[in-house]
Amino acid sequence: MKQKHFIDIHKGATAPIVLFLMYFYNQWENQTAWTYLALHGTYGMLWVLKSRIFPDKTWEQPSSIWYGLYMWFGLTLYWVSPWIITSGYFNDGIAVQIPVWYSSMCVSMYSLGVFIHFAADMQKHTALKLKPNRLIHDGMFRHCRNINYFGELLIYLGFSLLAMHWIPIACLAAMMIVVWFPNMKRKDRSLSRYPEFESYRKQSCLFIPYLY
Considering the entire predicted model, what is its pTM? Predict the structure, then answer.
Protein backbone atom coordinates (compact mmCIF):
# COMPACT_ATOMS: atom_id res chain seq x y z
CA MET A 1 0.00 0.00 0.00
CA LYS A 2 0.99 3.63 -0.48
CA GLN A 3 1.09 6.26 2.24
CA LYS A 4 -1.85 8.03 0.63
CA HIS A 5 -4.09 4.99 1.11
CA PHE A 6 -3.77 5.19 4.90
CA ILE A 7 -4.20 8.96 4.85
CA ASP A 8 -7.20 8.91 2.51
CA ILE A 9 -9.00 6.25 4.56
CA HIS A 10 -8.45 8.27 7.74
CA LYS A 11 -9.61 11.52 6.14
CA GLY A 12 -12.69 9.81 4.72
CA ALA A 13 -13.50 8.34 8.14
CA THR A 14 -13.68 11.76 9.82
CA ALA A 15 -17.36 12.45 9.09
CA PRO A 16 -18.54 9.03 10.37
CA ILE A 17 -16.39 9.44 13.50
CA VAL A 18 -17.85 12.86 14.28
CA LEU A 19 -21.37 11.55 13.70
CA PHE A 20 -20.64 8.65 16.05
CA LEU A 21 -19.43 11.05 18.74
CA MET A 22 -22.59 13.12 18.33
CA TYR A 23 -24.67 9.94 18.68
CA PHE A 24 -22.65 8.58 21.62
CA TYR A 25 -22.92 11.84 23.60
CA ASN A 26 -26.42 12.64 22.28
CA GLN A 27 -25.36 15.97 20.84
CA TRP A 28 -27.83 16.30 17.98
CA GLU A 29 -28.81 19.78 19.18
CA ASN A 30 -25.23 20.97 19.51
CA GLN A 31 -24.71 23.63 16.83
CA THR A 32 -20.94 23.63 17.34
CA ALA A 33 -20.79 19.89 16.70
CA TRP A 34 -22.78 20.31 13.49
CA THR A 35 -20.48 23.12 12.39
CA TYR A 36 -17.45 20.96 13.08
CA LEU A 37 -18.98 18.07 11.15
CA ALA A 38 -19.70 20.35 8.18
CA LEU A 39 -16.14 21.69 8.11
CA HIS A 40 -13.92 18.73 8.93
CA GLY A 41 -16.25 16.18 7.37
CA THR A 42 -16.32 18.11 4.11
CA TYR A 43 -12.56 18.58 4.19
CA GLY A 44 -12.10 14.82 4.52
CA MET A 45 -14.20 14.22 1.41
CA LEU A 46 -12.42 16.99 -0.49
CA TRP A 47 -9.05 15.49 0.43
CA VAL A 48 -10.05 12.07 -0.93
CA LEU A 49 -11.25 13.67 -4.17
CA LYS A 50 -8.04 15.68 -4.44
CA SER A 51 -6.01 12.53 -3.89
CA ARG A 52 -7.73 10.89 -6.84
CA ILE A 53 -7.83 13.87 -9.22
CA PHE A 54 -4.51 15.65 -8.57
CA PRO A 55 -2.50 13.55 -6.08
CA ASP A 56 0.50 14.85 -4.18
CA LYS A 57 3.64 12.87 -5.00
CA THR A 58 4.73 13.24 -1.38
CA TRP A 59 2.18 10.61 -0.35
CA GLU A 60 2.71 8.26 -3.31
CA GLN A 61 5.54 6.43 -1.54
CA PRO A 62 5.04 2.78 -0.49
CA SER A 63 4.24 2.23 3.17
CA SER A 64 4.38 -0.72 5.54
CA ILE A 65 1.41 -1.55 7.73
CA TRP A 66 3.31 -0.33 10.80
CA TYR A 67 4.21 3.02 9.28
CA GLY A 68 0.65 3.36 8.05
CA LEU A 69 -0.64 2.77 11.58
CA TYR A 70 1.87 5.33 12.84
CA MET A 71 0.41 7.90 10.43
CA TRP A 72 -3.10 6.92 11.54
CA PHE A 73 -2.14 7.56 15.17
CA GLY A 74 -0.78 10.99 14.30
CA LEU A 75 -3.83 11.96 12.26
CA THR A 76 -6.16 10.72 15.01
CA LEU A 77 -4.91 13.58 17.19
CA TYR A 78 -7.06 15.83 14.98
CA TRP A 79 -10.15 14.00 16.32
CA VAL A 80 -9.52 15.43 19.77
CA SER A 81 -11.47 18.56 18.82
CA PRO A 82 -14.81 16.85 18.07
CA TRP A 83 -14.42 14.72 21.20
CA ILE A 84 -13.98 17.85 23.34
CA ILE A 85 -16.89 19.55 21.59
CA THR A 86 -19.31 16.65 22.07
CA SER A 87 -18.20 15.16 25.39
CA GLY A 88 -17.92 18.32 27.49
CA TYR A 89 -15.13 16.56 29.38
CA PHE A 90 -13.32 19.82 30.16
CA ASN A 91 -16.53 21.76 30.74
CA ASP A 92 -18.18 19.91 33.65
CA GLY A 93 -19.91 17.54 31.28
CA ILE A 94 -21.53 20.35 29.29
CA ALA A 95 -20.92 20.19 25.55
CA VAL A 96 -19.05 23.10 24.03
CA GLN A 97 -21.24 25.95 22.72
CA ILE A 98 -19.58 28.95 21.08
CA PRO A 99 -20.71 32.48 20.06
CA VAL A 100 -21.98 32.93 16.53
CA TRP A 101 -19.27 35.47 15.66
CA TYR A 102 -16.57 33.03 16.82
CA SER A 103 -18.05 30.21 14.75
CA SER A 104 -18.21 32.52 11.73
CA MET A 105 -14.53 33.39 12.18
CA CYS A 106 -13.61 29.69 12.19
CA VAL A 107 -15.69 29.05 9.05
CA SER A 108 -14.02 31.97 7.26
CA MET A 109 -10.58 30.75 8.28
CA TYR A 110 -11.38 27.25 7.05
CA SER A 111 -12.75 28.54 3.72
CA LEU A 112 -9.69 30.66 3.01
CA GLY A 113 -7.44 27.75 3.95
CA VAL A 114 -9.24 25.33 1.62
CA PHE A 115 -8.85 27.75 -1.29
CA ILE A 116 -5.14 28.32 -0.65
CA HIS A 117 -4.32 24.68 0.00
CA PHE A 118 -6.20 23.19 -2.95
CA ALA A 119 -5.30 25.93 -5.43
CA ALA A 120 -1.60 25.54 -4.58
CA ASP A 121 -1.71 21.74 -4.90
CA MET A 122 -3.55 22.02 -8.22
CA GLN A 123 -0.97 24.49 -9.55
CA LYS A 124 1.89 22.24 -8.47
CA HIS A 125 0.29 19.13 -9.97
CA THR A 126 -0.48 20.84 -13.29
CA ALA A 127 2.87 22.62 -13.57
CA LEU A 128 4.86 19.44 -12.96
CA LYS A 129 2.69 17.50 -15.38
CA LEU A 130 3.13 20.03 -18.20
CA LYS A 131 6.76 20.93 -17.50
CA PRO A 132 8.43 18.39 -15.21
CA ASN A 133 11.76 19.02 -13.51
CA ARG A 134 11.39 22.76 -13.18
CA LEU A 135 11.28 25.10 -10.19
CA ILE A 136 7.80 26.41 -9.43
CA HIS A 137 8.20 29.97 -8.18
CA ASP A 138 5.22 31.84 -9.58
CA GLY A 139 1.49 32.01 -8.96
CA MET A 140 0.55 30.72 -5.51
CA PHE A 141 4.21 29.99 -4.74
CA ARG A 142 5.57 33.40 -5.66
CA HIS A 143 5.93 34.73 -2.12
CA CYS A 144 5.81 31.51 -0.11
CA ARG A 145 7.58 28.21 -0.84
CA ASN A 146 5.08 26.16 1.19
CA ILE A 147 1.85 28.06 0.67
CA ASN A 148 -0.08 24.77 0.65
CA TYR A 149 1.01 24.13 4.26
CA PHE A 150 -0.10 27.65 5.17
CA GLY A 151 -3.52 26.78 3.75
CA GLU A 152 -3.57 23.63 5.88
CA LEU A 153 -2.68 25.69 8.93
CA LEU A 154 -5.74 27.90 8.39
CA ILE A 155 -7.92 24.82 7.84
CA TYR A 156 -6.83 23.06 11.01
CA LEU A 157 -6.90 26.23 13.07
CA GLY A 158 -10.54 26.56 12.06
CA PHE A 159 -11.18 23.04 13.36
CA SER A 160 -9.10 23.36 16.51
CA LEU A 161 -10.42 26.73 17.64
CA LEU A 162 -14.00 25.42 17.60
CA ALA A 163 -13.14 23.30 20.64
CA MET A 164 -12.11 26.40 22.62
CA HIS A 165 -9.37 24.45 24.38
CA TRP A 166 -5.57 24.39 24.22
CA ILE A 167 -5.18 20.63 23.61
CA PRO A 168 -6.19 20.68 19.90
CA ILE A 169 -3.82 23.61 19.34
CA ALA A 170 -1.03 21.62 21.02
CA CYS A 171 -1.80 18.63 18.77
CA LEU A 172 -1.62 20.87 15.71
CA ALA A 173 1.68 22.34 16.91
CA ALA A 174 3.07 18.83 17.43
CA MET A 175 2.08 17.85 13.88
CA MET A 176 3.80 20.95 12.54
CA ILE A 177 7.00 20.22 14.45
CA VAL A 178 7.13 16.49 13.70
CA VAL A 179 5.83 16.42 10.11
CA TRP A 180 5.34 19.80 8.46
CA PHE A 181 8.61 21.60 9.18
CA PRO A 182 10.84 18.58 8.40
CA ASN A 183 8.98 18.22 5.09
CA MET A 184 9.56 21.91 4.33
CA LYS A 185 13.28 21.64 5.08
CA ARG A 186 13.50 18.46 3.00
CA LYS A 187 11.79 20.22 0.12
CA ASP A 188 14.24 23.15 0.30
CA ARG A 189 17.17 20.74 0.12
CA SER A 190 15.62 19.06 -2.91
CA LEU A 191 14.90 22.35 -4.69
CA SER A 192 18.44 23.60 -4.07
CA ARG A 193 19.52 21.64 -7.14
CA TYR A 194 17.97 24.33 -9.33
CA PRO A 195 20.32 27.24 -10.13
CA GLU A 196 17.60 29.84 -9.55
CA PHE A 197 16.57 28.44 -6.16
CA GLU A 198 18.87 30.63 -4.06
CA SER A 199 17.40 33.79 -5.56
CA TYR A 200 13.89 32.41 -5.05
CA ARG A 201 14.67 31.48 -1.44
CA LYS A 202 15.81 35.01 -0.63
CA GLN A 203 12.67 36.65 -2.02
CA SER A 204 10.14 34.19 -0.59
CA CYS A 205 9.05 32.98 2.84
CA LEU A 206 9.24 29.40 4.06
CA PHE A 207 5.75 29.03 5.50
CA ILE A 208 3.70 32.16 6.21
CA PRO A 209 3.55 34.73 3.38
CA TYR A 210 5.39 37.99 4.13
CA LEU A 211 6.20 36.85 7.68
CA TYR A 212 8.23 33.62 7.90
Answer: 0.91
